[in-house]
Amino acid sequence: MGVVVVVVGRLLATMRPCSFIFAILRRGQALSQTSLARKRKTDKLAPAHHPGDRTVTEGRLAHLIYLLHLVGIPLAPALVVGAGLAFWNRDVGPDWVRGHYRYQIGSFLGTLVAGALVTLVLRLLPDSPAGLVVIGLWLVWFVARCVRGMRLVGRGEPPPNPTTPLV
């Protein structure tokens, strides 16, 4: 985790942040267009996929978005870029990858809810450690969702229920 933060920090120090974000977006768009072209070619010819038949390249963008979510814990813009990529590509690719995009969008929305809850708790109870408790619970929930999603992408499996707020 620390290595990722150092690498991203060095990239941001050498590049303008906007060009870094646009480079990620262009890469995501190229991957989604490749997936769409592959889907158009194989829709008529390919048999139905089974979980073990997935190729690594189909889930590459979903894996990148999970990494952006994890990098987004200390660097919030990466989280927003990851959520934007997931939202942008939510209708592209095989069904199992689209399930991961929905799962990632749900993780981002859960983060927004947790942020609102922390703000509310800190406004109502400024001297209480309750805000730190909410942040800790969110952190455990968020990291568990990202790690679980990356493991499932690596195996070529969809999330069991992408719309659930649970891990």
Topology:
Layout: H1 2-14, H2 17-42, H3 60-71, H4 76-88, H5 95-124, H6 130-155
Kindly describe this structure.
- This protein is 72% helix and 0% strand.
- It starts with a helix and ends in a 12-residue tail after the last helix.
- It is elongated, with a radius of gyration of 17 Å.
- Mean pLDDT is 80; it is low at 43-49.
- With 167 residues, the protein is mainly α.
- It has helices at 2-14, 17-42, 60-71, 76-88, 95-124, 130-155.
Summarize the structure.
This protein is mostly helical and 167 residues long. It is 72% helix and 0% strand.
Key terms:
0% strand, mainly alpha, single chain
> How far apart, in Å, are the first and last alpha carbons?
20 Å
Q: Count all strands and give the number.
A: 0
Q: What share of residues are in beta strands?
A: under 5%
State the order of secondary-structure elements, H for helix, E for strand.
HHHHHH
Mean residue pLDDT: 80
Gyration radius, to the nearest Å? Answer: 17 Å
**Form type:** elongated
Task: Point out poorly predicted stretches.
Answer: 43-49
Helix content: over 70%
Class by SSE composition = mainly alpha
Put simply, the count of helices is: 6
**Main beta-sheet strand count, sense and barrel state:** none
